[in-house]
């Protein structure tokens, strides 16, 4: 438990001083809580001496009242010092860990850690913020009461003190067992929580697929199994926790009974004053209350400690730009020098010995079949992952030498799969530049060709778009994300062109928006449209993680090989689409003319 106090103070950081002061007040308050006992003892002694006068009653009453008043004041200050401290600490930690997540290697999130990350930041910190300070207070109070109780008992009667000490030692043994159960079970419980969070997250995130393929039964079963395992574990926990916890509680009940019995016997035999006996009879029922609470606290503390362990693990995840410096770039070309990269050690390399240069303010198109490694190249430029061999240079600087912040402030990314936050359109665009004015946001939206559809919405820029941007169409989301990138106005643009077919009107708008975004920028585009590919200053043909060909459209068409095959296939697919659309149109006309 002392370890827990130390860890909480460490977590508190600069607010630890407040908590320490609160402990001191709690100690004084604990001392004062014994004042009524002495006041009663004083009255008993006077009664037994037959020397009591009305003034004695006033005196005792006055002392008790004064103690109560001082305790109320101390408690008030204590609460003011402590209340909110837990919430403050956890809010601060959540914000700082949120910042840190940005610097985690992307692999951390793709390796099945989402459940434990979510549990650590939500469930664990929630438990700590709600119970941490209260538990600290009770632990400190419990220890102080043990100390004060032991001193008082020795002052009153050493034989009774020894009985209490013996029972306390047995209770310590039981408490040790409680802690042992807590230690084992809290790990299982935590693992179970993370599995449950992962299962629910996956179920909710995949709900559209689950509905579309009518597989809710199977997936629901996976979540149901996890819920049932969580329930079984909770029951198992209670079963294992109850025996040592009951023994712990029983020790104090037995100690109380023994003290009552022995005090009466000693008094009857004449080896104890009647006043001491009476005081013991009162004190004994009150003395063990704070100590008894320690057994339930033990399990709470174990849960909090396991939470702290998981949270500290997050703090110990090596951040990708630990050795990075804030470097201001003065040119914006990109260079890959003999880059070889695999997503995981045991995996086949996604890129093998790739070298190329993207000159500043030029347009480079990445083309290749699905899975060839185009997105991987983009991932390495923005340093979502680090290369194992070779180097990636941006503006002549190895990205490994830069902090993520100083690198990414030079980049705008427009992904194929756009994610908008459950917030207003205004704030979603402002992600590009947090301090942008309303006018700047509107100007960016106009250039991204989304101002008109935003104004047509009931609340305009204040419309909340739903999680992931669910209330907007795919094309609209794309344009909002382009507005975001235009507002950021970074010198390098990475663009993953949409493959999903959008209607021609939307496609025209998106193309105009992209044209605005890429003016005078270094552009790397994962290209799917023939028009884009043809216009590129340079085309990199990626095949099975290698750079198969490099050149302009005309050069590559002359060379033949991969590029020509790709181009022919795409041209053919396009003409199929056009023919199919024309046939559909003819069919429609035929139908309408016959009706
Ligand atoms: N996060 C990841 N973890 C492990 N392997 C990955 C990961 N992302 C991609 N890969 C693998 O790396 C290889 C290259 O994938 P990449 O996404 O770069 O291809 P791509 O050319 O962009 O494909 P597409 O056009 O379908 O998006 C593939 O074999 C893919 O399975």
UniProtKB/TrEMBL annotation:
What membrane topology does this protein have?
Multi-pass membrane protein
Residue ranges constituting the ABC transmembrane type-1 domain according to the UniProt record: 21-301
Example GO molecular function: ATP binding
Reading the lineage from the top rank, the first entry is Bacteria
Q: Which PROSITE patterns match?
A: ABC_TM1F, ABC_TRANSPORTER_1, ABC_TRANSPORTER_2
Determine if Heme is one of this entry's keywords: no
Spell out where the chain crosses the membrane. Answer: 21-45, 57-74, 143-175, 247-268, 275-291
| Xref: InterPro entries | AAA+_ATPase, ABC1_TM_dom, ABC1_TM_sf, ABC_transporter-like_ATP-bd, ABC_transporter-like_CS, P-loop_NTPase, Type_1_exporter
Q: Which UniProt keywords apply?
A: ATP-binding, Membrane, Nucleotide-binding, Transmembrane, Transmembrane helix
What name appears for this protein in its UniProt entry? ABC transporter ATP-binding protein
Source lineage? Bacteria, Bacillati, Bacillota, Bacilli, Bacillales
């Amino acid at each position: 438990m002392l370890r827990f106090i130390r860890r909480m103070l460490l977590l508190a950081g600069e607010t630890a001083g407040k908590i320490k002061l609160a402990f001191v007040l709690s100690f004084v308050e604990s001392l004062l809580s014994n004042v009524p006992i002495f006041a009663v003892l004083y009255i008993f002694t006077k009664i037994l001496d037959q020397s009591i006068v009305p003034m004695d009653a006033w005196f005792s009453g006055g002392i008790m009242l004064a103690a109560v008043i001082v305790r109320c004041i101390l408690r008030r200050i204590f609460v003011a010092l402590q209340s909110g401290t837990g919430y403050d600490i956890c809010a601060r930690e959540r914000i700082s860990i949120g910042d840190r997540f940005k610097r985690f290697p992307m692999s951390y999130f793709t390796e099945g850690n989402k459940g434990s990350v979510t549990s650590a930041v939500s469930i664990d910190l929630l438990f700590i913020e709600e119970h941490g300070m209260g538990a600290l207070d009770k632990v400190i109070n419990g220890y102080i009461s043990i100390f004060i109780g032991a001193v008082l008992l020795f002052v009153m009667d050493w034989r009774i003190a020894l009985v209490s000490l013996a029972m306390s030692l047995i209770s310590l043994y039981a408490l040790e067992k409680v802690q042992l159960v807590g230690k084992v079970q809290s790990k299982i419980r935590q693992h179970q929580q993370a599995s449950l969070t992962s299962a629910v997250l996956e179920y909710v995130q995949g709900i559209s697929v689950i509905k579309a393929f009518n597989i809710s039964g199977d997936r629901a079963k996976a979540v149901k199994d996890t819920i049932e395992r969580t329930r079984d574990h909770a029951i198992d926990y209670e079963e294992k926790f109850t025996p040592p916890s009951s023994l712990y509680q029983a020790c104090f009940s037995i100690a109380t009974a023994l003290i009552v019995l022995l005090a009466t016997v000693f008094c009857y035999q004449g080896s104890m004053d009647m006043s001491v006996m009476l005081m013991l009879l009162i004190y004994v029922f009150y003395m063990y209350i704070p100590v008894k609470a320690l057994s339930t606290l033990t399990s709470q503390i174990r849960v909090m400690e396991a939470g702290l362990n998981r949270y500290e693990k997050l703090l110990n995840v090596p951040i990708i730009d630990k050795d990075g410096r804030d470097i201001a770039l003065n040119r914006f070309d990109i260079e890959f020098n003999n880059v070889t990269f695999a997503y995981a050690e045991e995996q086949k390399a996604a890129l093998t010995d790739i070298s190329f240069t993207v000159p500043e303010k030029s347009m480079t198109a990445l083309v290749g079949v699905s899975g060839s490694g185009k997105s991987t190249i983009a991932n390495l430029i923005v340093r979502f992952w680090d290369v194992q061999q070779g180097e990636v240079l941006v503006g002549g600087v190895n990205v490994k030498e830069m902090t993520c912040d100083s690198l990414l402030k030079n980049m705008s990314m427009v992904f194929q799969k756009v994610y908008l936050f459950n917030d207003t359109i205004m704030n979603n665009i402002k992600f590009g530049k947090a301090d942008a004015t309303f006018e700047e946001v509107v100007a960016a939206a106009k250039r991204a060709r989304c101002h008109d559809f935003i104004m047509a919405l009931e609340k305009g820029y204040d419309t909340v778009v739903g999680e992931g941007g669910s209330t907007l169409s795919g094309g609209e989301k794309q344009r909002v994300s382009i507005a975001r990138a235009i507002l950021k106005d970074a010198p390098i643009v990475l663009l993953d062109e949409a493959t999903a077919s959008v209607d021609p009107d939307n496609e025209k708008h998106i193309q105009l928006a992209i044209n605005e975004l890429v003016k005078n920028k270094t552009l790397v585009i994962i290209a799917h449209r023939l028009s884009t590919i043809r216009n590129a200053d340079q085309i990199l043909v990626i095949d099975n993680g290698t750079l198969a060909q490099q050149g302009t459209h005309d050069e590559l068409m002359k060379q033949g090989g991969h590029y020509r095959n790709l181009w022919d296939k795409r041209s053919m697919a396009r003409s199929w689409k056009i023919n199919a659309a024309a046939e559909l149109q003819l069919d429609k006309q035929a139908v309408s003319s016959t009706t």
